[in-house]
Amino acid sequence: MNSNEAEAFSQRGLDQLAAGSAAEAVQSFRAAMTVDPNYAEAHHGLIRALRDAGRFEQSIGAALALTALTPNDPLAHTALSISLQRAGHIPEAETAAARARILEWKAELQSSPDKDGRQ
Questions:
Q1: What DSSP state is assigned to residue 17?
Q2: Domains with residue ranges and CATH for the chain
Q3: Are 12 and 42 in contact (CB under 8 A)?
Q4: Which of 4, 6, 16, 64 is the most exposed place for a label (fewest CB within 10 A)?
Q5: How far apart are CA 28 and CA 67, in angstroms?
Q6: Residue 77 to residues 5, 8, 37, 55, 84, Cα–Cα distance (Å)
C-alpha cells in the first residue's frame, strides 16, 4: 500500500472537482482507494464527487462505507447526512447529523480539562 500514490490520485480528484469534472474525479478517488482502501481522504472525495455528479444514492453508499471505516469521525457522519439530504431522505439525514453532533461533543468532552485543570 503506497500512501503517496493514494494521495496523488486524491489530489488529482480534487483538481478535477475544482475544474467541474465530477465523473473523472470519481475515477481518481476510486483509484486512490484501490491503492489504499483505508485512505479516508479518498473516501471523502469520492462522496463529494458522487454528489456533484448527481449520483446521490451512490454517494450514500460511499458515505456508509466511510462511517464503517471511521465510525467515530464526525465528518464521516456529516458527509452521510449531506448525501442523505440531497437524496431526499430527510429523517435519515437528521439522524446522521445528530450522530455527528454527538461525536463532536464526545471529542470535546474528552479533550476538555477536568475541574483540576488536568487533561
A1: H
A2: 3-111 (1.25.40.10)
A3: no
A4: 4
A5: 21
A6: 26, 25, 18, 18, 10
| Cα 74 to Cα 95: distance, rounded to the nearest angstrom | 13
pTM score of the predicted model: 0.88
Distance CA 102, CA 44 (A): 20
CA distance 95 to 77: 9
Question: Can you say whether the dihedral through the CA atoms of 101, 106, 109, 111 is positive or negative?
Answer: negative
CB 43 within 8 A of CB 62: yes
Structure confidence by residue, pLDDT tens digits, 9-47: 999 999 999 999 999 999 999 999 999 999 999 999 999
The one-character DSSP state at 25 is H
